[in-house]
C-alpha cells in the first residue's frame, strides 16, 4: 500500500486538510493496537469516517478507513486483515459498494452495511453480494459501536428471513431488467454489435468499413435486427435499446464497439466480427 493512501491510521486528508492526530496510535500503544479487533470503515464522508474510527478506537477496536474509497484501494487494505468492514452505502456509489462487498467477501472479511431508509435496492444488492449484516445509519454513535461489537461476535448476523426481505427490492429490479432485455436475446452476437453501433449514431457504410465487410452484409444484419425487435427504422431500434437499458457485451478481450479505426487509420476487425 502506498504511503498516504489511507487515513484514520495515518495519511493525508483531501484538499490538504490534516488528519485528526487523535486517530494515530502513539508509539507506546502499538502492541495494544495489534491485539485489538480490526475494523475497516468504508465511508466517503471524511468527518463521519473519522468519528467512527475515533469511537471504535476508544473501546476494544483498532480501526482504519479508506481514502480514496475505491475497490483497488480496499483490496490493498484487505491485507491488513480486518475482522469486519463497515460500509456506508449512502456515501459510496453503487458499483463501488457492490464491488467492495464482493471483494471483501472473497477474502473472508464480513461486511456490515451502514444504511438509511432509502437504500432498498442498493442494500439488497450488497446483501446478495455477500454482506452479512445491516447497521441503522440513524442510530447514535454509541449504539453503532454496540452493534459492531455484536456483529464481530456473530450475534447480529441477519437471519435468512430478514435477508430475503431486504434483498427483495433488488431482486425485483433484476427481474424487471431481465424482462426488458429479454427481446434482445434473440439477436446474434454480430447483430448485437451492429445494434451498438447504430446506438452510437454510426451509419451502415461506416460499420462496413470498420469491419472490412460489404455494405450488403451490414444492411442484411440491420434488416434482421429490425424484424426481430419489431420496429421499422434504425432510429426506432436505437431508441428502443436505450429505453430498455440495453448495452453491448462483446466477447472477453474484444475492443469496445465504438473504438472504430485503429491508430494507423486502417479499418479494424473486432473480436465480435461481422463476417459475411
Tell me what you see in this structure:
There is one protein chain. This protein is α/β, with parallel strands linked by helices and 276 residues long. The chain has two domains: 6-175, 3-Layer(aba) Sandwich (Rossmann fold); 187-259, Winged helix-like DNA-binding domain superfamily/Winged helix DNA-binding domain (Arc Repressor Mutant, subunit A), CATH 1.10.10.10. It is built from eleven helices and six strands. It has helices at residues 30-35, 46-57, 71-77, 94-106, 120-129, 141-153, 160-181, 189-199, 204-211, 215-229, 234-244; strands at residues 6-7, 37-42, 61-66, 84-88, 111-115, 133-136. Strands 1-3-2-4-5-6 form a six-stranded mixed beta sheet, sandwiched between helices. Helix 5 (120-129) crosses helix 7, helix 8 crosses helix 10 (215-229) and helix 8 crosses helix 11 (234-244). The chain is elongated, with a radius of gyration of 25 Å. The termini are far apart. Residues 1-32 and 252-272 have low confidence and may be disordered.
Topology of helices and strands:
Layout: E1 6-7, H1 30-35, E2 37-42, H2 46-57, E3 61-66, H3 71-77, E4 84-88, H4 94-106, E5 111-115, H5 120-129, E6 133-136, H6 141-153, H7 160-181, H8 189-199, H9 204-211, H10 215-229, H11 234-244
Parallel strand pairs: 2-3, 2-4, 4-5, 5-6
Antiparallel strand pairs: 1-3
Quick tags:
11 helices; alpha/beta; 46% helix; Arc Repressor Mutant, subunit A; 276 residues; 6-stranded mixed β-sheet; 10% strand; 6 strands; disordered N terminus; 2 domains
